[in-house]
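Example 9 (inverse folding). The structure is encoded as follows.
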């Protein structure tokens, strides 16, 4: 039997590094939000190129807070993509926003600046851009469109930790960027999310939104709660796991990128198959690898028969009943979704594994 290659695999640090640190915090008497959380925010900020970082218990919570900081209220329109996991767009509903679908590039499933421009109205309050699969949307073009209208951008970089755009960590030019630390992402804290804010003036409000509208550093009996807040904060246990992860994550992300670049080159010229391409100034971090294939279902069966996990991963969100009031024609997404399939390129994919994937695809289906 051939060794199966999973589509996702959780990375955790060696137990001799992780368990003593977890035991220390678990029995410290301080397991909610305190210094380990703030240290993790600082250290994570070093990784992504900004110290304007707010930790949350999930990426969805971070997106919700970003949208509230952007001023999204009941009935405001948020332009977004249907090619993503459902939480991206659920966060818009949590904020009270109305979802407006923009179309994607059929070569990669990423929002286009042209489609965003066509969907802007006087009611548009924000644009959410998802870097699907770790590939990077054309942010220079998108920022040109949104900047002309004074519309803030929320980048969903749940799949894109370690990616770079125009030589810088992804997201630094947008008002808000979310990173997910959910179980199967590049890096996990079991669950969690990080929100990077371009403007440090957003941080005090963000801290209150994540903790019932209360400033945790103020006297609890003397504060006057003036806004509705949420229980979105990260705790010291998750943060400690994150701190240990940061000591090991660089080679993990590098292996995703190395494998992705290998497939970019090795899969050229195969009949009936195209690799996804993105903005030339984008340096993807390849959460999974995306190809476009003729007779896609036949290819999926071939890969599965050879022990190579593959999947569509996400249902296009515009087909869910909960979002039915936003339905519209999306020809780019139609073309992408009919041909795309994802297979593994993560840290667990060895040189032998990736060669086996390429040889299988070269056989034809």
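The amino acid assigned to each position is listed next.
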């Amino acid at each position: 039997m051939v060794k199966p290659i999973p589509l996702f695999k959780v990375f955790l640090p060696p137990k001799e590094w992780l368990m003593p640190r977890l035991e220390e915090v678990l029995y410290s008497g301080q397991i909610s939000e305190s210094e380990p959380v703030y240290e993790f925010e600082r250290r994570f900020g070093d990784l992504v190129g900004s110290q304007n970082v707010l930790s949350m218990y999930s990426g969805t919570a971070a997106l919700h807070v970003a949208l509230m900081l952007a001023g999204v209220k009941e009935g405001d329109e948020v332009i977004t993509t249907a090619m993503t996991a459902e939480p991206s767009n659920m966060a818009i509903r949590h904020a009270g926003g109305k979802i407006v679908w923009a179309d994607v590039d059929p070569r990669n499933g990423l929002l286009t600046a042209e489609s965003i421009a066509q969907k802007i109205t006087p009611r548009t309050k924000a644009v959410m851009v998802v870097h699907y699969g770790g590939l990077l949307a054309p942010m220079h073009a998108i920022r040109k469109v949104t900047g002309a209208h004074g519309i803030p951008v929320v980048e969903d970089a749940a799949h894109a930790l370690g990616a770079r755009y125009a030589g810088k960590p992804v997201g630094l030019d947008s008002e808000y960027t979310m990173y997910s630390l959910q179980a199967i992402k590049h890096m996990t804290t079991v669950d969690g999310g990080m929100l990077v804010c371009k403007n440090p003036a957003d941080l005090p409000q963000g801290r209150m939104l994540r903790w019932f509208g209360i400033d945790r550093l103020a006297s609890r009996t003397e504060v006057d709660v003036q806004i509705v807040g949420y229980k979105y904060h990260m705790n010291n246990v998750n943060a400690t796991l994150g701190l240990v992860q940061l000591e090991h994550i660089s080679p993990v992300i590098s292996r995703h990128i190395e494998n992705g670049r290998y497939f970019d080159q090795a899969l050229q010229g195969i009949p009936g198959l195209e690799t996804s391409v993105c903005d030339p100034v984008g340096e993807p971090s390849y959460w999974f690898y995306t190809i476009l294939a003729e007779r896609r279902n036949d290819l999926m069966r071939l890969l599965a028969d050879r022990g190579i996990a593959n999947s569509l991963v996400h249902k296009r969100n515009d087909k869910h009943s909960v979002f039915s009031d936003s339905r519209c024609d999306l020809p780019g997404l139609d073309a992408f979704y009919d041909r795309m399939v994802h297979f593994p390129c993560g840290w667990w994919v060895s040189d032998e594994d990736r060669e086996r994937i390429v040889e299988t695809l070269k056989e034809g289906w």
